[in-house]
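User: Show me an example of a complex going from sequences to structure tokens.

Assistant: Sure. Here are the input components:
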Amino acid sequence: MSNRSHDSYGDYAVVQVPRDQLKSAFGLFLVYTGVLVCIAVIWGGGALGNGLTFYDMVKASVLGSLILGVIGFFTAKIGGHTRASTYVILRHSFGRIGSMWAGAAVSGIACGIGWFFIQAWLFGTVFSTIAKELWGSVPFWASAPAASLWGAVLMTLSAAFGYKGIAFLSYLAVPLFLIALGGGSYAAITEAGGFSAALVAQPANPMPFAGAVTAVVGMYIAGATITSDISRYSEKPNDGGWAWFWQVVLLQPVLMLAGGTLTLLTPASDVAQAMAHLGIGLGALVLIVFGQWTTNDNNLYNGALAFANTFRVKKATITIIMGFIGAVLASMTAAGFFGTDPFIKFLTQLGRFLPPIAGVLLADFYVFKPYKLGKKDADERYAFGPGTRYSRYNVAGMAAWVLAGLLAPSIPGIVALNSVLLGFVLYLVIAWGASAMNLKYEVGTWIEGEDGF
Amino acid sequence: MTASLESFKKQVHVVTLVLGLAALVVAQMADTSKAAGLYTAISLGPVAAGLITIYRHKVSPGTDKSVAKIVVECAWVDLSFGLGFLMMLPSSYYAVQSPVSALLGIDAVIMAAYGLYVLINLSKMGFSLTP
């Protein structure tokens, strides 16, 4: 039996990425940046500008981004060592069936269907607003339902090509987005009073500093949890970690400050709309189209990776099915058939259960396996390939995951960070405790087949 | 090493630097400081990419794959920054006088077209465009 699985499902979805397919740190940096840059982050910065002074906004966005940078560095490093997706990695700390459930729930349903359709709907809505600002009226193709539909189709197309598709788009779109954002936010802020006015402006509705840091961390903790989906392609184990760290620490504060500074000066935080109003129309369109496209194709990519670990179906097929569902839902929402509130409430509840996965992963990879089970070599710590034996359920991992998701909101502090820390501590307590008492916390056996499933 | 890859290795940083520096010089002729500032900032992208490419070639192991990776990444900068100029030039906020606009536009078209040309050729040679 060969020790290397055949890539039956495409994009190395359930097998390790071969060494000759690994990518440069610069490429990973651009892909991570593509995920980060979107309208929602700029609007998130706008929320900070509503409650903080400029200097507090700088401090909150940098501190929150640093927390995300550190968590994401270590999760990405796991992907760099194992060359496997988050959901395949979870087979060791959640068990084979546990990884199917956890991955499908928090990434498959939440990212691949839920947030994908919400972001596609947002794309359509913002695009039609800008179209009206630019052209005075909205042609049918630019209306919110139509733009949601074709926007979702574009996003599905790049995601269907897997990592190559999203990387190709990021190489082209990320520099364009950053040029548009730089030129656009400078113009919008200057016309709204300038940076000197922003430095002394007082927020309309002051908010506590800790609440602002919580908001920054909460906004992107999901991304910091599933970094391995990208870093599995890194040439050196740390490349993905550093690519993640620098893009989030350098660029997230810039995006947030663009929206936040504008909100400090005016009641609005919509940089794209301000750009269109100032005659930077093409830049505004690039900001929306490429910003949403590079982020949302990643939602679909992550969701499809999770489902590929759950169902024996080609990843591209899963991507197209989810893209179709998302496109229809986004278009119907934009047409007014139903609102987004119930979906967002459901996704927010489900989102509570994503950060604890990072805690369990970190505890298992960096503490339990090396110091309890003696697996010191990080590259050999997790085995994959045909014939590899996994438990069906790792009770320690699953219990820590669910308990951390349920308990974290009732503990004071940064909820998303609490979730990660609780998952980390609970996993170690349960697994180490059970191990010390000779209690079995891994149930059943699953043997990996030739196809990596 | 194939001849074409060798020729791209020799020329990509030169073309990128020359086009970037040309844009940098032209940007200083803009009649408003905000336009001069924006186009100077964009010009610095290809200038930096050209210099970094020279350094990367010096420390590269020199295999076809490693050379192609450096050339491809520099070509992507040409393509995206060329398009970046073309995206901002029509904006009324950053409008510049016609001769400057025309010069920057020509420089940007050449930059984007050259980047695309290199990428297409390297793709035909079988190298990854997402190294």
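The lines above are the inputs; the final block is the predicted structure for all two components together. The radius of gyration of chain A is 22 Å.
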